[in-house]
C-alpha cells in the first residue's frame, strides 16, 4: 500500500470498534498475570511487576482497566473512578463484572460512590449467555489460545461491548497490541491462564443468575 | 487418628509412588510460570522470580526438575546432569520430553554428554498416547483445574512414571505440596497455563511420531 508520499510502506489499519454503536457499554480487561515479556528491560519489568502485584493481575490473572455502563439517555453512563478500579480486589472485580450486565445502577450515580445494593444482573443471560454471547466468544478465543504458538500478547486487553435494547449484540475484541512478541513454538500460557480465570467468573455469574431465576438461590 | 503418643492428631499419609515399580522411568516437571504465592515474603519472591526467569518457568510455564529413563538391566538409567537440566531452554525441554519416551539413548551413556542423534520416540504412542496414556491423564487434570477454586499449587510438580515392557502402565501424579495456598474462589490460572503449555508440547511429540510412522514427515 502506498503512503501519502507515494512510497510503498507496510501499513497498520486501525478500526474504530465502537463507531457503529450509539451508546455502547464497554469493559476493558487487561489479560495475563504478567504484563511483561521475558526479553523486556529490567527497569520495565520492575515497573510492570509492581503494578501486576498491586492490581488483581497476579491474583486473578487479569485486571480491569476501563468500565462504563449505559444507564439511560438522561442519566448517561455509570463510570467508576479510575482510582476505584485501580484499587479493586478480586471481589470488587467480580462485582464490576456483575454491574456491567445490570440495570439497577441508578443509585450508584446518585450516591456518587459505590452503592451497597446488589447488581441485578438482569442482562447477564442476553450479554454473557447465549450462543453469540460473550462467554461463547471467550470459549472460542480460548480454543485458539490452547493451540496457537505464533504470538504472545503482553498487556493486551479484551474489550467487551454491547448495547441496551432488543438486540444487545455483545462483542469481544482483542485490543492494544503494543507488546506482542513472537511465540517461538510455545503457547501464550500467560494469556490463556488469565482468560480461563475470567471465563470461570463469567460462568459463575451466569449460573448464579439462572439459579436466581429458577428460585434455587435467594436474592 | 492417634499418634504414637496415644493423642489424637491430624496426620498426613505419605505414599511411596514408585514402590510397586521395578525400574521406572521418571520425569519431574515443576508446573507454573510463577513458583511464588502472592502472600510470600519479598525475600522469597525475589529468590523464586530469579529462578523462574533463568529457567523455562517464565517462557514455557514449567521447568524440568528431574529425569531418569531406564535403558536396560546392564546399562541402567539415562540421567542428565543436574546442571544440564537447570540450564535447559525451551528446545532442550522439548528434547528431554522426547528422550523420556525413546529407546535409542545408549549413545547418551557412552559419550557421557548429550548426544547429537535424534531420540526415536518409539514409546510415545504407548506412554504419552492411548486412552490411559499420560496425555489423556493430563487432559483430565486440565478439566479439573479449569473448574476448581479451592487450591493454588505453587512450585508443585507433576511426576510422570512408566516402565518399559508389555504394559508400560504410564501414570501422572501431582507431588510436592509444600506451597499450596487457598484458592479463595479463583482458579489456579498459573498452574493451568503451564499445564496447557505442557499438553501442547506432548501433543506435538505424539502427532509428529504418528506422522513419522505414516511417512508424512522425514525422520
TrEMBL record, chains A, B:
Q: What do the Gene Ontology cellular component annotations say?
A: cytoplasm; nucleus
Query: What EC numbers are recorded for this enzyme?
Result: 2.7.1.140, 2.7.1.151
Which GO molecular-function terms appear in the entry? ATP binding; inositol tetrakisphosphate kinase activity; inositol-1,4,5-trisphosphate 3-kinase activity
Share an example GO biological-process annotation for this protein.
Answer: inositol phosphate biosynthetic process
Q: Does the keyword Kinase apply?
A: yes
> Could you tell me the keywords of this UniProt record?
ATP-binding, Kinase, Nucleotide-binding, Transferase
Q: EC top class, in one word? A: transferase
* Catalytic function, reaction form: 1D-myo-inositol 1,4,5-trisphosphate + 2 ATP = 1D-myo-inositol 1,3,4,5,6-pentakisphosphate + 2 ADP + 2 H(+); 1D-myo-inositol 1,3,4,6-tetrakisphosphate + ATP = 1D-myo-inositol 1,3,4,5,6-pentakisphosphate + ADP + H(+)
The reply on keyword Nucleotidyltransferase is no
Family statement drawn from the similarity comment of this UniProt entry: Belongs to the inositol phosphokinase (IPK) family.
Q: What does this protein do?
A: Inositol phosphate kinase with a broad substrate specificity.
Protein name per UniProt:
Inositol polyphosphate multikinase
Species whose genome carries this gene: Lactuca virosa
Amino acid at each position: 500500500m502506498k503512503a501519502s508520499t507515494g512510497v510503498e510502506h507496510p501499513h497498520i489499519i486501525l478500526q474504530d470498534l465502537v463507531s457503529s454503536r450509539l451508546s455502547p457499554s464497554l469493559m476493558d480487561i487487561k489479560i495475563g498475570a504478567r504484563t511483561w515479556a521475558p526479553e523486556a528491560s529490567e527497569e520495565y519489568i520492575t515497573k510492570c511487576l509492581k503494578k501486576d502485584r498491586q492490581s488483581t493481575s497476579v491474583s486473578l490473572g487479569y485486571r480491569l482497566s476501563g468500565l462504563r455502563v449505559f444507564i439511560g439517555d438522561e442519566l448517561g453512563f455509570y463510570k467508576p473512578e479510575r482510582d476505584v478500579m485501580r484499587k479493586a480486589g478480586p471481589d470488587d472485580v467480580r462485582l464490576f463484572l456483575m454491574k456491567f450486565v445490570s440495570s439497577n445502577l441508578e443509585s450508584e450515580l446518585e450516591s456518587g460512590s459505590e452503592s451497597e445494593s446488589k447488581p441485578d444482573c438482569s442482562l447477564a443471560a442476553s450479554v454473557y449467555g447465549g450462543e453469540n454471547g460473550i462467554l461463547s466468544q471467550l470459549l472460542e478465543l480460548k480454543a485458539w489460545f490452547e493451540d496457537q504458538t505464533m504470538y504472545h500478547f503482553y498487556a493486551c486487553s479484551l474489550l467487551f461491548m454491547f448495547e441496551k435494547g432488543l438486540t444487545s449484540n455483545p462483542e469481544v475484541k482483542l485490543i492494544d497490541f503494543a507488546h506482542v512478541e513472537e511465540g517461538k513454538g510455545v503457547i501464550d500460557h500467560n494469556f490463556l491462564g488469565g482468560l480461563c480465570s475470567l471465563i470461570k467468573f463469567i460462568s459463575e455469574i451466569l449460573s448464579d443468575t439462572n439459579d436466581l431465576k429458577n428460585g434455587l438461590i435467594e436474592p
